[in-house]
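User: structure tokens for this one?
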Amino acid sequence: LDVGHGLGEVPHVIIVKNRDRSASWAVYHKELTSPAENRYLQLNTTNAESANSTFWRNEAPTTTVVKTGENSSVNVANEELVMYCWVERQGYSKFGKYIGNGNSGNTGAFVFTGFKPNFVMLRETGNSNSWWMFDTKRDPHNLTFHRLDAERNNAESTNTGSTNPIIDILSNGFKIRGSGNVNNGSGETYIYAAFAEHPFVSSEGVPVTAR
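Assistant:
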């Protein structure tokens, strides 16, 4: 099934949920192992990325449509599904990957986004791990300790009082301060989605005016 998305550009992140049956949230991210259109993650599980042509038909999304396969998570005749699609916007959103270095504190991996993120979600792709989410509302100042896990219904977790906070949210990106496999294992690959609260520039690169 070809599903129109209306973005006018190739989506970088796609999330699909079948509303009519018990099925996982299917996730496409442009930085999954190449070819990304043959890979998927599940937002509601800790499962590592897997190869499966029944999700995206081994066909990359285009500027007009997302190509879904026959998997029940993304396409079933006469059932209702919801699809969310995002494309990067300069100064506002960024969807990329980074390689962990296994270091903690000030020498942890740094991720450049070009703006101060208001929200960050990250995920290690090659092993069973959680989806970690951070924001500047619960931690308006660094260090950043509080997190939610997308795949769990647990209350937020916190490292408050610990000497090992999770990340720092900076003016031009975020720094990983932990050294664990969930967010900064040495040599491991992580995907992320980051959104700004107040962009530095418009989507055309024009500096925004002060409020």
